[in-house]
Amino acid sequence: MESAVAVLPPWIVLDPVLKSWLLEDIGRGDRTTQSLFPGKAQVGRADWIAKETGIVAGLPLAARVFELLNYQVTFVPIVAEGDSCKKGQVVARIHGPFDVLLTGERVALNIAMRLSGIATLTGKYAEQIADLPTQLVDTRKTTPGLRVLEKYATQVGGAVNHRMGLDDAVMIKDNHIEAAGSIGKAIALIRSRIPYPLTIEVETETPDQVQEAIQHGADIIMLDNMPLDLMQQAVQMIRQKNDRIKIEASGNITLETIRAVAETGVDYISTSAPITRSTWLDLSMNIVMSTME
User: Fold this and answer.
1) pLDDT tens-digit readout, 122-164
2) Does 124 qualify as catalytic in the annotation?
């Protein structure tokens, strides 16, 4: 299965966010760096070093952080976005005034470390089903304020984005069904009120719910927390009734179970694990002292 193409929003969207993170860290001024360089700082170099193996993500954002501080900074990726790095490898090389390199260091590293961690774990999940037609999908379980970037990182790691927010698509979950009275009632009410392009996905847990979702014209049917044998039966039922309906599996997906779930024939497997269970990929920045006078 070919990996999704990871795309960041334009800078007009991201710049205010990056600037707010810089303002949070800098406060009323970088006391340490401004005291070291009270005048015009010398221009030099810093290297970003990987302290563990993983998939690199977030380098364009890190470069933009330094650029927002000073357009004289040049950020050169040594490892391309989405490629793997090894422990001890130089990931990026940065040239610019030392005060800018030091002031922007933490914000830039934080972004790259967080996103690289997500991309790395996503890559492990995607690798398990790489030879199958099933696609790995992320969820809305993201850190408030970081959704766009965290979902970008899953793309870098090989996943496909699920809806970005509540306005992207309709997903009728168990509580919606309970509130509406039935799957059929929920679909009918929603179908009559949403714009034409939106699709309707229904979360199901039993064969009866799957049958009802098919009957009332769901575009996508999610098989939630189903045992493998029941999931396989549901997939066969859906394919026989309407092979245009997309099928998504979800619920307690792990590295150990994802392949078996994919082998049931579902189109998508959604899991929050690459975002909620990932750890940061450890990176560090080293000023190259030989470039200083």
Assistant:
1) 999 999 999 999 999 999 999 999 999 999 999 999 999 999 9
2) no
- Condensed to tens digits (0 to 9), the pLDDT of residues 203-247 reads 999 999 999 999 999 999 999 999 999 999 999 999 999 999 999
Q: Is 141 a catalytic residue?
A: yes
DSSP string, 62-73: HHHHHHHH-TT-
Helix or strand run (H / E) with residue 121: helix 98-128
- Residue 53 gets the label, from left (phi > 0), alpha (psi -120 to 50) or beta, of beta
106 is catalytic: yes
Q: What is the pTM of this model?
A: 0.94
Q: From the candidates 93, 140, 147, 173, give the one annotated as an active-site residue.
A: 173
Distances 154 to 173, 200, 222, 267 between C-alpha atoms, Å: 23, 23, 20, 18
As beta bridge partners, residue 97 has: 43
Residue tagged active-site, from 87, 141, 241, 277: 141
